[in-house]
């Protein structure tokens, strides 16, 4: 293999940015944990003021703030005085589209520890989380109430943008009851019910997953139209619905586990019912154009795929992969509807056979 004697500046910069990516994530995590953006608010704050409120060393605080400015999350309006950018404002707890919990969770040492052992996961095909912590991710989460609450909040924040699009992207009005399997706090189910007043809901998850659901549904005025059912989707699925919905569930598990989950849905679903899986869909392994991976469109999806590998033994999947899972569980995949860009999720509809 031949190399250019002098790599381009663009090539060097691309590699250096990737190498520094972990440091950027830790910088983001520190800002989220310390509540920097909450303290700045809508105005401007000086580094010394913020250091005092955070019980931090002033010079170190200034260095953190300048690093956040370098990442595009803050802007230095005058020497030592900072304000938030639109991206940085998403770290504010009260922002309607806040990603603070999401940022805290995905920069938490619990998540990042497994990534340190990525090469082990690649060699074995098994989650390195189990090696690092001596048990699987969800078992560990169940024993950590605060981390579990952060995880639920992070998943809710990650779901919110998709939840805003789904009610208008699919014909929910033809159904009587929708069961959201693994639906957490109801972030997805609530807007569906609000958009379709004749629809009733069943929110099905573990007791930990449902911990914040009652409050959310009550706040949305939906507690009278939605039942909370605690259970294990590896053991059963609730009866009484004609639409079974799973968002960001299938990618958490291996093929055998996914087939078990979907078979329980098949046992509960009526013959005229439907299954709706909401997940990203990877491009075909061999694209018709034979152009391979497009990092501008799918880079984040492939990182998510590795995250599923190291933490939970799951994976992101292609349309063919979803088709095989559905057939193995007694469903026929009918349509795949991409949500409007830049959202990366698709509505994957299947019917019982």
UniProtKB/TrEMBL annotation:
Where the record annotates domain O-methyltransferase dimerisation, the positions are 18-93
Q: Which UniProt keywords apply?
A: Methyltransferase, S-adenosyl-L-methionine, Transferase
Q: Which SUPFAM superfamilies match?
A: S-adenosyl-L-methionine-dependent methyltransferases (SSF53335), Winged helix' DNA-binding domain (SSF46785)
Q: Which Gene3D superfamilies match?
A: 1.10.287.1350, Vaccinia Virus protein VP39, Winged helix-like DNA-binding domain superfamily/Winged helix DNA-binding domain
Q: Does the UniProt entry include the keyword Ligase?
A: no
Q: Which residues form the O-methyltransferase C-terminal domain?
A: 115-332
* Record protein name field: Methyltransferase
Q: Which organism is it from?
A: Streptomyces sirii
